[in-house]
Queue: 4 jobs
Job 1
Amino acid sequence: VSHNARALTDEELKALLEGPTIARLATVRADGRPHVAPMFFLYRDGLFYFFQRKSAAKQKLVNIQHNPNVALCVDTDVSPYHAVTVAGTAEIAAEDVDEISLAISMKYEGEAGRERNRRYREESPLSLIKVTPTKVMHFQT
């Protein structure tokens, strides 16, 4: 953490990760170029989860299958600025897709997320991206 920042308290970290903040998930294309996408996420038991409709833009799924190394950032856009940056490995998980995708939808949209998640599942199968952190930094500036 830079000299102008301090680590987040446990309460601040929990509020940032459980609130409706957006994560920016970075994956690596086969040619080495980065690909970054803003995404809804769920943080549970030390892991980050994202879901992706298989019929929608799926570059990140292709990238993860080729190279599981990822990075992500979750941050606020008002002072005092809070941020979490993560380096880790991603996998396409088959377990708990319906339950976790629903939890993600409802985190951001409340009860309306239940209907949107149902529509997503009807339109296309969902893939679950599970990120296991290998390095986590969090700070306030």
Job 2
Amino acid sequence: MRTPVKLMSGKVLDVDAEAEAYLRASGLDYTIVRLGGLSDQPADGSAVLSPDINAYSQITRADMASLNVKCAEDDKTVKKTLAAYDPSRVGFLALFGHRSVPVP
């Protein structure tokens, strides 16, 4: 069964998965940060990086930038795939009965 995100994203998620696999196989250091969606709302600093790559929420552009800087400065994120997650923001998937995955 295809989720609402997959239905609306078409082949974009498949191409993203291919790009991630290529990067992992490259031998380069990397950090992949997945996000659910970006908003122009003011940042509130509640966004986090989750090891649960199924965590999904909208995130502000400013919070996303801050999380990317944290990744660049933290060697523990190298060769990891993380989700940018903001538990204070409810995404549009709530309309479909989807609940954001809590951060462990």
Job 3
Amino acid sequence: MTVRKDIKVLLAESNVKLKDLAVEMSEKIGKRITADNISQKLRKGTLRYDDAMIIGDILGYDLKFIKRN
């Protein structure tokens, strides 16, 4: 799966719209974020790690690296 698909699945499972996510992100970081900004980053594959961390936090998830066996 790609990050784009993963985040879209998490949004659907959490019943959160991209617009609502953008509002939450804007409040959390104090900078204007739009649904279009997030959508473009996901589509282009340019989502930063810190943005992914914020999205995970808003949706109630932690991001972590897990060592493969």
Job 4
Amino acid sequence: AKRFKPGVILISGCQDNQTSMDGDDNGAFTEQLLKVWNNGTFDGNYAAFHARIRARMPASQSPKLFTLGAVGRFLTQKPFTV
């Protein structure tokens, strides 16, 4: 039997000890994610995407970047591309 070894990247709205705040139309994190994504014109990798979103958030809510498994190449890709 083959072993399945997935690589996972999670960008969540806040740290485990924080609460995600609401925004005007979505949660605060989702609003900033959509602004940074800018209808797909964002031209960086996942680490840059996370950093840009995090910089736009209030100090009380810090989006989390969590990885599991072999994600090195995946982290260097443009977000939400296949």
